Each structure stands twice: as structure tokens, then as C-alpha cells.
Amino acid sequence: MTGYLPEGKLINTTENIKTLSSLSNMQQAKLSQKILEAKATVCDAQHNLIVDLGDMKGIIPREEGAVGIKEGSVRDIAVISRVNRPVSFVITDFTHSDSGAPVALLSREKAQRRCIDEYISTLKVGDVVPARITHLETFGAFADIGCGVVALMPIDSISVSRIEHPKERFKVGMDVKAIIKSIENGRISLSHKELLGTWEENVAKFSVGETVTGIVRSVENYGAFVELTPNLAGLAELKDTVKVGQLASVYIKSIIPSKMKVKLILIDTFDSESSVKPPRYYYKENHIEKFVYSPIECEKYIATEF
């Protein structure tokens, strides 16, 4: 496990709490440039972040708010969006307010720079890393892979079963695992679906003759695709009332590994919204070279090589 974790993972640790509990401990942390975490409570009119350090106020000056702010390659939303959330930082100095109260000067940029230099720069394509979802867009999910450094997980890399929006899989703040999919000009792209199991691993949870719950993911003129797990969907005959996003109870008519098909009979549909559940991971290692989704006997060959 890396020492550089997504923001929010460090804040409640015993060591972090102890370090922030006294001025002498924080002075030692300044000398060692130890990375700490606390909650940002305010972003002032100059876009400086005010950080709650318990008995002391901390200030992250705007230009120290994130890697790229100084250079103008990162917008100020990277700072503003941290209000009421944990931030990683190192202590750069101590000063006093007008009333004489001690104030700690902090740098999130320096914490991120260390994370990039000592951890993120060492990552290779195929590495499996811890991540935390920071925000969701129609085209994908952004995830913090260390000290607030964010990478994009495109929507088609989230699961085998297609979704219309990442919010169908993730919530902001959710801890997930991700695979380094590509590294180009310092930009990292993530993948996720390869950790959710092969067709065989997923279909092993079901048996012919069972009636189970699924989610209608698409409606075509030849049938409705119903998701049974994030990496497994089956095809059911259409009914007039079927709509994308509905919950469905389906009877499993047949499972055909050679064609990688699950044939379903639609029993009923419901308009209640499905809840976002934490992902179930089948792959447990820290690196993956190749993921073969399709069964050996299948006519199609579906694989990802990293």
C-alpha cells in the first residue's frame, strides 16, 4: 500500500490527529515536511483556503492550492471545490494573526508535487491503485489517486454493462479501485471494468430457472438488455411498458457460454430507482497485464491488454 492516498483517507488516522494536536508536533511536521490532512472550511475572496487545525487556523494561499494554479494550467475551481472537504498539505511556516493568535501557512501544491514525484510518476500501465471519486460528468468519473491529484475514468471503462451516466455506478466520495489505463504527457486515464470479473465469474452467480432482479439498460427493437451485474447483461423479449432505468424481475431461460448469452423472460418492471452499491471486485492483485472477458469456448474473443 502506498503512503500517498486519496484525500480524506488520512484525516482520521491516529498519527494525523496526534500531529495536529499540539504546536510542537506541528513544528516537527514542518521540519520533516510530513503530509497531513484537515478540513477546509472557507475559501476567501482571494481564493485562499482556510483550514481547521483544531486550536489553530491554517491558511493555504491560492497559489499553493493545487499543482498548476501558479502556472494557470489549473482553474481556481480546484481550490474552491475543496470547501467542507479534507485537504492534504505540508506546513511551510508559522505566523500570527492581527490578534496575536498562531497561524500555520500550508501548501497543498507541495504535498501534491511530492505525491507526483515519489508515487504517481512511478506508476505503470496496468497497475491497480486505490482511488476516491471526486466528481461525475456525463463522459466519465474523475477520481483522486493521491493527495488530490485527479485522473479521468471514461464512462466506457467503468463497466462492461453500458450505462448512461457514471452516477449509476458511483457516488462522490466513494472509495474504489482503478487500473492505470494510459499515461500520455503526464495525463493518466483509468479503467475499472476489468476488476469486476469475467463473463464466467459473473454468470456463475446465476442458474437457469431462477427469477432475479436486474436493471433495464437499453431497449432495442429486438429486445431489452437487462443488467444482472455491472459486468453481465441478458436479453429479454420486449414489453410495451419497458423503459431504460427501470428495475426488472426476470426469469433466466438459458445460459449459453459458447455465445456468451443469457436469455431472459421479463416478468415485471418497476419505476423505483436502483441504489448505488459499492463495487464487488474479483481481481485482487496489484497489477494486471491482460484481462480476458469472454469464455474459452465462446465464438467471440473479448480482452483488454495493458
Secondary-structure map:
Blueprint: H1 14-19, H2 23-32, E1 36-43, E2 49-52, E3 57-60, H3 77-80, E4 86-96, E5 102-107, H4 108-118, E6 128-137, E7 140-146, E8 149-154, E9 175-184, E10 187-191, H5 199-203, E11 211-220, E12 223-229, E13 232-236, E14 247-256, E15 261-270, E16 290-292, E17 303-305
Parallel strand pairs: 3-5, 13-15
Antiparallel strand pairs: 1-2, 1-4, 2-3, 4-5, 6-7, 6-9, 7-8, 9-10, 11-12, 11-14, 12-13, 14-15, 16-17
Give an overview of the whole structure.
With 306 residues, this protein is mainly beta. Among the domains are: 14-117, Nucleic acid-binding proteins (OB fold (Dihydrolipoamide Acetyltransferase, E2P), Beta Barrel); 125-195, Nucleic acid-binding proteins (OB fold (Dihydrolipoamide Acetyltransferase, E2P)), CATH 2.40.50.140. Helix content is 12%, strand content 39%. The strands form four sheets. Strands 1-2-3-5-4 form a five-stranded mixed β-barrel. A five-stranded antiparallel beta sheet has the order 8-7-6-9-10. The model has no long low-confidence stretch (mean pLDDT 95).
